[in-house]
Design a protein that fits this description.
The complex is a heterodimer of chains A (306) and B (441).
Chain A lengths: L8 H11 L20 H22 L2 E3 L6 H14 L6 E4 L7 E4 L4 E6 H6 L2 H16 L3 H11 L4 H9 L1 H37 L2 H13 L7 H11 L18 H12 L2 H5 L12 H12 L6
Helix pairs in contact in A: 2-7, 3-5, 3-8, 5-8, 5-9, 6-7, 6-8, 7-8, 8-11, 9-11, 11-13
Chain B lengths: L2 H7 L3 H15 L3 E6 L2 H10 L5 E6 L5 H7 L4 E7 L6 H9 L6 E7 L2 H6 L3 H15 L16 H91 L4 H37 L4 H4 L20 H19 L3 H23 L3 H35 L1 H12 L1 H31 L1
Parallel strand pairs in B: 1-2, 1-3, 3-4
Helix pairs in contact in B: 1-2, 1-15, 2-8, 8-9, 8-13, 8-14, 8-15, 9-13, 11-12
Classes of the chains: A mainly alpha (306), B mainly alpha (441).
Chain lengths: 306, 441
């Protein structure tokens, strides 16, 4: 260690700032980022989020713990594996008995933290654990944490707004409520794309598209699914729900519909990008980056079928 | 207790049945068994006898098991040996095997009439043969011409048979007792070997744990020394690093990540080297792979605290209050005051931030130094905690392995203990049988 040759601050800063630019993450699904250039407004925004999230973290820690080598060591190992796979710093991890859908990456791009569910991780397979931890680390890697947290705060996604309201007070609710619809319209599409990027990161960490699909189904059903992801997609196609008017509800949805996420994972698992990033693909013919982007884009469009 | 009850209590059901049969036979008329190797000799001699006997001619072959039981039911026995070929070696040997023969017994010369045909002086010949036979006979088989029953022959013979059967039963009990004693000793040796094996497992595991822990701590000390050296090196290098980056704003934003990256990378390399060194030590000591798996330190999750001059909590809270107040005013329909509050909050926050941007590089270096020290302390603490946790795990290694070995051999040990218990019970039963038989004997 004493001979460890670390990079200079200047070199690191140059790489680091490039890494934060849109499209810098090679496996990300590009989707017109709402990322603002670093500046006064962004900094103020991050400071605001830091304040709210620090209050929220304190709330989570009332009935949760920081994972570490000696505390929830199994979960910490999973996160460590994912952080090494994606080459990011190991983020702080709070483990609590929350539901699967409340898991997430919160904070800001500079100071992110993960919230993981002990209920999910205690019963999941290694592949499923790596997928879920990996997809949250993917949000950090793709610098989606600031906007993801803002989105969650504004549209009451996953109860974050509720937690913030309890800590900051009802004034926050008065401020956020009128913004909710606008934020949904403006950020939902970006948010859905961000979820696809995170799913791809999760797949890179678990390197098993079947386990990734099972993890998504498990998070959706809140139990060990007694069906195959392929059977789920077949059922979805047979029902023909994509042609019904209800499909327009996806416009304001925070996440792509589950069958689309499964299909998008399958596309990524058969792509050059997946193999280039270290994944193991069984496909004989790999999709080029352009094909992957076009087919994923068509899939995510409202009414697009899996 | 009767003889039959004693035999039954001793588990000698066969002997008890023989005893019942013999007692019934002995209670009837006097029975005299006439034995000879040639059945015709026995028949001719039996025919020549008279007196108060029920004469039972018997052929005696090599297999005499049934005959021995038969003899228990007779009051007297005569071995008839032909006078023309008296008492050959085979007959003398057979006489030695007739241990159930009654006490009233003897050897008689048969077919004396044949001597008259082959000898000129049959009487002298007969006397000579008798003298020769008398010399060859064992002490308990006298040469006789005829046997006469005494008055108490039935009672005497009955006692004789009872004593014989009880003695036989006692002999068998003693033999079984000896077998069970040997089996008990063998089982006790096996159980002692099991205990010794478990002790050996515990000793081995304790030795392995001590080696693993010693190797881990020895190399961990070097790891922590190297970490401190690195921290000192980076701290000294901070001014030069900051001088190398013109953009102060970029430096301020990238510096915490750079510190994290440097420590993360150095620790990752250091932990890899630490594990290789520990495994090399353990391989030399021939420590098994399973124990070597304990030798693992995980990379700690390190996060620099926000730089104090950059992230003033007072400013953050003021900004949050300003925006919240603006929201309240907007909700009350006071749009202009709301916009004023919001823009004032952002403007003030930006202005104060710009003031901070003008803070000297010295302040940034001081903040980075504090963060670096905090990261170093955090890393040392987490690594030390991991080592302590592993030491506690290794302390349990002896018990864990002993429990595992005990569990793996549980079936065998339970079989041994069950067998030992059974043998012990049988020995107790045998002791009771022996006491019962000795009481009757």
């Amino acid at each position: 260690m004493q001979d460890y040759d670390y990079p200079s601050l200047a070199d690191f800063a140059e790489t680091w700032s490039h890494r934060r630019a849109p499209g810098a993450v090679p496996y990300a699904h590009p989707a017109g980022p709402p990322i603002l250039p670093p500046g006064a407004v962004t900094e103020r925004l991050e400071e605001l989020l830091d304040t709210v999230v620090s209050l929220q973290r304190a709330d989570w820690l009332v009935e949760g713990v920081y994972a570490g080598p000696n505390a929830m060591g199994g979960i910490y190992r999973d996160v460590l594996h994912c952080a090494r796979t994606l080459s990011i710093a190991v983020p702080p991890v709070i483990v609590s008995g929350c539901g699967s859908s409340a898991q997430g990456a919160f904070g800001t791009d500079d100071r992110p933290s993960l919230r993981l569910s002990s209920l999910f991780f205690s019963a999941a397979t290694e592949g499923q654990r790596h997928f879920v931890a990996g997809r949250l680390c993917g949000h950090i890697d793709a610098h989606q944490v600031t906007w993801g947290t803002l989105y969650a705060l504004i549209v009451d996604h996953d109860g974050l707004r509720r937690v913030a309201r309890r800590n900051v007070g009802p004034a926050l609710e008065l401020f956020l409520a009128p913004l909710s619809l606008g934020a949904r319209l403006g950020l939902s599409r970006w948010h859905r794309s961000a979820e696809i990027t995170a799913d791809r990161a999760g797949l890179l960490c678990c390197d098993d598209v079947h386990e990734a699909g099972m993890a998504l189904l498990r998070m959706a059903l809140a139990t060990q699914p007694d069906l195959d992801p392929a059977e789920f997609l077949r059922q979805r196609r047979t029902m023909g729900a994509d042609a019904e008017p209800g499909r327009w509800t996806e416009v304001l949805s925070a996440k792509p519909w589950l069958h689309k996420r499964l299909a998008a994972l399958d596309l990524f698992a058969r792509s050059e990008a997946f193999v280039r990033e270290g994944g193991t693909s069984t496909a004989e013919v790999l999709l080029t980056d352009e094909e992957l982007h076009e087919r994923t884009h068509a899939l995510l469009a409202v009414g697009g079928g899996a | 207790m009767s003889v039959e009850e004693a035999l039954l209590a001793a588990g000698e059901a066969g002997a008890a049945a023989i005893w019942r049969s013999a007692r019934r036979d002995l209670a009837g008329p006097y029975r005299l068994a006439v034995l000879a190797r040639d059945p015709s000799v026995a028949a001719r001699f039996a025919a020549s006898l008279d007196g108060p006997w029920e004469v039972l001619p018997r052929e005696v072959g090599a297999e005499s098991l049934g005959l021995l039981d038969d003899l228990l039911g007779v009051h007297a026995v005569i071995w008839a040996t032909p006078a023309h070929a008296p008492l050959p070696a085979a007959e003398r040997e057979l006489l030695g095997h007739l241990r159930t023969a009654p006490g009233l017994r003897g050897v008689a010369l048969a077919d004396l009439a044949l001597l008259a045909r082959i000898s000129d002086d049959p009487e002298a010949e007969a006397a000579e043969v008798a003298a020769r036979v008398a010399r060859l006979l064992p002490e308990d088989w006298p040469l006789v011409e005829v046997l006469s029953p005494s008055e108490d022959l039935r009672a005497a013979r009955t006692s004789e048979v009872a004593a014989l059967l009880v003695a036989d039963a006692l002999t068998r009990v003693a033999r079984r007792d000896a077998e069970l004693t040997a089996e008990s000793e063998r089982l006790n040796e096996l159980l002692a070997a099991e205990d010794e094996a478990l002790d050996q497992v515990r000793r081995d595991a304790t030795r392995v744990a001590a080696h693993v822990l010693a190797a881990m701590r020895r190399h961990a000390e070097q790891l922590l020394i190297d970490l401190r050296d690195l921290l000192v090196r980076v701290e000294r290098d901070l001014p030069a690093q900051l001088d190398g980056l013109e953009d102060l704003d970029l430096a301020r934003r990238a510096l915490p990540h750079w510190l994290q990256h440097v420590l993360d990378g150095a620790l990752h390399a250091g932990l890899s080297a630490w594990r290789s060194a520990v495994l090399a030590d353990l391989a030399e000591l021939d420590v098994d792979d399973e124990a070597s798996h304990h030798a693992e330190l995980l990379l700690p999750s390190l996060h620099p605290a926000p730089f104090a001059h950059h992230t003033s909590w007072g400013r953050r809270l003021a900004l949050t209050a300003a925006l919240g107040g603006a929201a309240l005013l907007a909700a009350a329909g006071l749009w202009l005051p709301s916009l004023l509050a919001m823009s004032s909050g952002i403007a003030w926050s930006s202005w104060s931030g710009s003031q901070e941007d003008e803070a000297s590089r010295e302040a940034l270096i001081t903040a980075a130094r504090d963060a670096l020290r905090q990261l170093g302390e955090q890393a040392e603490r987490v690594l030390s905690e991991q080592l302590d946790a592993m030491a506690a795990e290794l302390d349990e290694l002896g018990d864990e392995r002993t429990d595992a070995a005990r569990e793996a051999r549980r079936g065998f040990r339970e079989d041994l203990q069950a067998a030992a218990t059974q043998v012990s019970r049988h020995r107790d039963e045998l002791a009771a049988m022996r006491a019962t038989l000795e009481e009757v004997a």
